[in-house]
Predict the 3D structure of the following.
Amino acid sequence: MLNILERDTEELTTLNHSTKVFHDALSNVKKGETRFHVTDPSGSVPDYDLEYIDNMMMFPDQLRGLILKMTKGGATYAPFLNYDETDLDNICLRFLDQFKKIELDVVDEYSVNVVSIALKHTDLHVYVTDEKINWFISDPDRVHIVESLPTERDKDTLRIIAGPFEMGYTKRDWTYLSSVAAFQNLFFWQAFTGGRKGPFKYIDVMLSDITGIGGLLSYVSMCSRAGEPRGLKAFLSPGCTRYPDELLSKYFQMDPKPEDSTPDNTLMLGKMMSVFTTSWYVNQYPSNFDESILKEAFAAEMREYADAILGDRKVLGVLARGTDYVTMNLGADRRHATPDQMISVIREWIEEDGYEKIFLATEDNDNLEKIRAAFPGKVMAISQERHTVSEMQKKNASLIYEFEQKLNTGKAYVDALEDTTVNYFYALYILARCDAFLCSGQCNGWDTVRSLNAGKFKRERKLMVAMEGDPAVEKWKEIRPVTAGIFARGAYPTNKAFFMTYRFDLKEPVNPDAVKTAWDKTLKVYPYMSYAVANRGGKLVLLENNLPFVIKETAEIVEPYERSGNFHSVTFCYMANALFVYVDHVPVDGTGFQLVLETFFYHYYCALDGCEYPVPEGVLTEKDGVAPGQEVDAYLMSDPIDPKTMMGKLAGGKVFTLKESILDDLFAKKEDCRGYCISVNSDEMMSYAKSVKGSPMSVLAVTFANALERENPDNKLPISVISPVSVRKVMGNTNSLLHQVVHNNYNFTPEELTGNDDEALNTKFRETMKGFTSEQNIRLMCGVYRGICEGYAKAYAAGALDNIILETRAKTNSAFSVSYLGTLRTGDYGNRIRMTAFHVMQEKGIMLQTTEVGKHFYIDWYQGFPGDKYVKAMRDLMLEAGMKSVSIERVE
């Protein structure tokens, strides 16, 4: 694709602006050039640049690698280095017939072409937010420049946006597309004609050895039906799959390659099979076949077996895919429901429809055992060899076909493949004979079963948990979408809880009854903490949650957000004197939750001691009622700013990285992480801070940087320290619990650390922080963070946020984060609370979270690698500074 950019000063080939400028540029792309200057000889259009990017390169590396693995080197977007806007026989104008107008949020090569085709061959009007469209198209009667597009989209409107993620197929929604997808849905035939005019007779369906038997039959059927209106017949390319031709001909009615098929009269799908099958046009012809696709002897055997298995009983058919659908960590429509999620729906359908038996088809032994245990005596399944995710991981295989090849070779592999194929099709056939059908997610088995059933199911459902959320919460009342919290969701894979861990070591053993009483009263002040966070319709939303909170005696983690925590944002675990609080980081940040903790501990000690303590100044209690403003999002008080416009200011140069944190993994392994608590008397800390004209925040940052420098004396790079800064004071939403922080990066150079005393270092840090926290800058940063959140929300809706997370992680060094949350306001009971751990998920770098509780500062240190030399170095520096009470303890 050619993007339209501002003119730069680089020496480049210069092209003349014209209606053929994109083709002129592509001619040079084929010679190896990728960027061009463009000038208009008439002077009507300002100079600009065109920059080429291969369509598949628009995907992040992680996602592109996954696509290449799943397609064996194939592509979901064709390169389109050649195309012909006048070749209407090979442009799918039918695609535009479903729309009444087009909305354009991006102007590039592809969106310009889509609009041009629409204006020439339809009566559609076009609404565009970028006046650059007028450089290429002049039609003032039907092209309308608007400031913004409507928030709500009409179903009969095609909206075209930037980026590669919205391709239509993953959500089966072709009304909201990236420009490359919109273009491809018009020009996809030309990806295979290669400029040839035909006539064509055949489609050569070339699948890879990854494709299973259900996919094989479905794809051939789909391609055959899509080709029929153009007089094309489809056939399976001989020898392209892992199934020997002899095996296929033994069980299935497969048309052989026609003798008169030649390269001149045959469209070869080849590596661009997905370009064809993900198009809107082809998806108007879903696979559709019946028993006639089976050899009669095979069909007769299965009919007899199904009759014996099902009899006259009312049976629910369940297809529960696992194994490689789990190991590949697939997203969007390819993320399948877990057994627990399926069990919720199965139980509901049994209660509503009275199914006597469940026929379960699954290749995953864990799925079989879990569902069988949930419905004793009800589950029927074919006797076959099944595998587990852990078995595949031990063999380092992420795909079933890889695993099968590692288990068997030669004739043993062929024999095992035949057994698997027969068992798989037996299972699908019996599913098609059931009264109702539930499938764990999008897979070719879903299509095959429905084709064989021919619309006879009483009810059928394909779970889409990545876009619809957990079935257990789908009927819960929606409160509103998550706004600021999507920033936190963008820090960690979305299929996992991203939570904060608090550990409080109390003077007395934890009293669970007092915990419950205190939390019930806290929720009357902060009802926001009772909401669930869930996926609904591609949006991250808050839901009303009436399930009980988890308060459990255990040393194990009970994660919030998911089923284990009853979908709540907070769970409580305790053991002896240790109270662990796990908090979903999406709806709340550390500063916000500190307000909640202050209320909680007040009520906890009142309940524990059977008295009513004086209320600490500023702390809200049950008697105050609902805290006002707890859901106010300051990010929304600023206009959104595209973060790309700030990248030059926000991006830094090369910085120091600990050798211990240079890992191949994107996240530190939990078993390698270490937690420590440095505690120090408040008077000693404040006395030292005053002596160096510092603050607790500056002292922490300077001392931490000096500790790293002491242990790495040969370092020549700046030590970059990230500090979260709450925007609440500046933005006037002091009671807000939401994720309301922006992040300041401060670089300590080795020369500064060795050439300045602590007073100079603290003074400079505080001056920089003062500038960063000015009202003007905080409002600016809120706009940037709003822009980031809105971008993340779009990626989340497209099922692409995980890929952005992984891509960002792959390019980001381990970080050093130093945070000061201030004082946890308590009465005298504060001296009975030691806050010995506070951290988020495992990171490869080092994170310090510091809070003053009672008469002590607790510096909760969490690092993504073993060892204690850095925490000891910080302790030693604090001792040398006169803080004699400082101590370290190792905490989990």
